[in-house]
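so my prof wants the structure for this chain in the tokens format not the other one, which i didnt know existed until like an hour ago. anyway here's the sequence
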Amino acid sequence: MKTKQIASLLIISGSLFILACKHEVKYSTNGFTNKADAINSVTDSGKEGKWIEYSDINDDSISDSSKAVYYTLTIYKMGKKFGTVRQYFKSGVIRNEWTYTNGQISGLSKEYDENGKLKSEYPYSGGKIDGVAKLYYAGGKVSAERTFKNGNEMAEKRYFENGKVSADITYINGFPGEVKMYDTTGTEIIH
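here's what i got, hopefully its the right format
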């Protein structure tokens, strides 16, 4: 009789251990890149694990993958986006890359063109743009630097492809305040 009780306790303990381990799944903060790895699982907490989601030209979510223009690979942890999320053009070329912490976008967000060249970088903190964002010409040179504080744009500096400043703008309450414009030699033409 004692043997059966001990065996029952071991089975119950083992089952509880397996259940506990199931809820302690470790996910990589680097996300994932193979869409075949997506499982699209839902738990009581919401979306969980590796997901693939499709969107149309307006970035609206759609269920028909044959009509998709983009697809996004996301890891969810207890219903919240986790780690690096990547969006791709249907061709498989990366379009966007975001990092999430506790369900909020954080760190450097990157946008790419259809050839995979970097178009822009935006720094995020606590779900808001915070810091200096950079936009790029197709050749890779910086076309603009936009400074944000807690989601509000504070200043913008635009550049010609030769690297000279074309405009220097400060913002007040979200609207352009002081604006300085320059010609391709760097000479101020409007103040």
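also thought this was worth mentioning. Residues 6-22 have pLDDT under 50 and may be disordered.
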